[in-house]
TrEMBL record:
<dbReference type="GO" id="GO:0005524">
    <property type="term" value="F:ATP binding"/>
</dbReference>
<keyword id="KW-0234">DNA repair</keyword>
<dbReference type="GO" id="GO:0005634">
    <property type="term" value="C:nucleus"/>
</dbReference>
<keyword id="KW-0158">Chromosome</keyword>
<dbReference type="GO" id="GO:0003697">
    <property type="term" value="F:single-stranded DNA binding"/>
</dbReference>
<dbReference type="InterPro" id="IPR027417">
    <property type="entry name" value="P-loop_NTPase"/>
</dbReference>
<dbReference type="InterPro" id="IPR031420">
    <property type="entry name" value="UPF0669"/>
</dbReference>
<keyword id="KW-0547">Nucleotide-binding</keyword>
<dbReference type="GO" id="GO:0035861">
    <property type="term" value="C:site of double-strand break"/>
</dbReference>
<keyword id="KW-0233">DNA recombination</keyword>
<keyword id="KW-0175">Coiled coil</keyword>
<keyword id="KW-0067">ATP-binding</keyword>
<keyword id="KW-0539">Nucleus</keyword>
<comment type="similarity">
    <text>Belongs to the SMC family. SMC6 subfamily.</text>
</comment>
<keyword id="KW-0227">DNA damage</keyword>
<dbReference type="GO" id="GO:0003684">
    <property type="term" value="F:damaged DNA binding"/>
</dbReference>
<dbReference type="Pfam" id="PF17065">
    <property type="entry name" value="UPF0669"/>
</dbReference>
Length: 357
């Protein structure tokens, strides 16, 4: 008769360690069971073929991205040369930067090869004038369009600092691209300047925003109502007092414009219609409407007019404010047009998203 030796419980591992080891063994067993049946069914083969075909489509798209630099270089070269400039574009993938250099004078360009001469000085964007930089940037954006697929494309204030020659040339290029090369896309261009240089174009609709801003306000006696104005070009600022006495104080740089001499650059403080004309200095500029302390609360109407086509000439005098109700109705009409246009674009976007989803 034999006797069983009882286990030594003092030598057993902790319960947590045992459970962890048990879990690892169970996982290995489950994985091994899944690998036992290696047969390939017709359904699996069909799924694999479909995945392969989808992968080829994505590969083709990704392969095209390798040509982005070449396409962009080609098109920016064409656009810049349309102004008899010459330029180079270099993409540094390591630093993730794009360097564009431009020769803006014919003496920097070899007449035979139309290439930048190595012994000539070329300039990057920082060395260009404001107009040259705006023109070059617009050319670069147009070059990017060749590798973009987007139903809507917008440019805002693309012609800032351009002279009349550059504006006419770039606007002709944009209109040609929008109506001929990319006629299936919707283009929206915003400019604070006139577009008389463009002339009439087929399939181009122009919405001329009113060159004015109106607001009615109230200011307590001895206080200011302040405004920040960002419109480019010269401005005519008109204030009509309804009750009390509202005066104008204007500054090119002081946000806290006030009646102290060192805190404003121009003012008009009459008992009737007040107005001032200010030049086209860098924006923003600052306006303060002051309520005279001896007149109690002052209510007023403020009208700001922009110069004609970015010049210092104005289509209307300060008496235009007398047609306040007519101006308000005109602005409401313009806002309605832009609202309709915006909602139309949104409807198209939602329709496209609905098809994709």
């Amino acid at each position: 008769m034999s006797m069983t030796v009882p286990p030594d419980f003092t030598k057993l591992p902790p319960t947590k360690d045992v459970e962890k080891e048990y879990g690892l063994v169970t996982t290995r067993i489950s994985a091994a069971e899944k690998m036992v049946d290696r047969s390939i069914t017709a359904e699996m083969l069909s799924d694999f073929r479909n995945d392969f075909e989808e992968g080829k489509k994505y590969y083709s798209k990704l392969k095209g991205f390798g040509q982005v630099t070449f396409h962009n270089y080609s098109y920016i070269y064409i656009y810049i040369n349309s102004l008899q400039y010459n330029g180079d574009m270099m993409v540094d993938n390591n630093k993730k930067v794009i360097n564009i250099t431009v020769a803006t004078h014919k003496k920097n360009i070899d007449d035979r090869t139309r290439k930048i001469r190595k012994d000539d000085v070329v300039q990057d964007l920082k060395g260009l004038s404001g107009g040259e930089r705006s023109y070059t940037t617009a050319c670069f954006i147009m070059a990017l369009w060749d590798t973009m697929e987007a139903p809507f494309r917008c440019m805002d204030e693309f012609d800032v600092f351009m002279d009349m020659v550059n504006r006419k040339l770039i606007m002709e290029l944009l209109a040609k691209l929008a109506t001929e090369q990319y006629s299936h896309n919707q283009f929206i261009f915003f400019t604070p300047q006139g577009i008389k240089e463009l002339g009439e174009k087929d399939r181009v609709q122009v919405f001329d925003m009113p060159k004015l801003f109106t607001v009615a306000g109230v200011v307590a006696p001895g206080n200011f109502s302040r405004y920040e104005l960002k419109w480019p070009g010269a401005l005519r600022i008109v204030v009509q007092t309804i009750t009390g006495d509202a005066d104008i104080y204007f500054s090119y740089s002081n946000k806290l414009v006030s009646y102290e001499l060192e805190h404003h650059d121009a003012s008009s403080a009459s008992c009737g219609l007040d107005y001032i004309d200010v030049s086209s200095k860098p924006r923003p500029v600052y306006l303060g409407i002051y309520g005279h302390p001896s007149k109690g609360e002052s209510s007023y109407r403020l009208l700001v007019l922009a110069g004609r086509n970015g010049t210092d000439e104005f289509e209307h005098g300060p008496e235009l404010i007398e047609r306040w109700d007519e101006l308000a109705e005109q602005l409401d009409e313009y806002h309605s047009i832009y609202d309709d246009m915006l909602f139309g674009i949104l409807e198209i976007i939602f329709a496209i998203l609905g098809e994709l989803l």
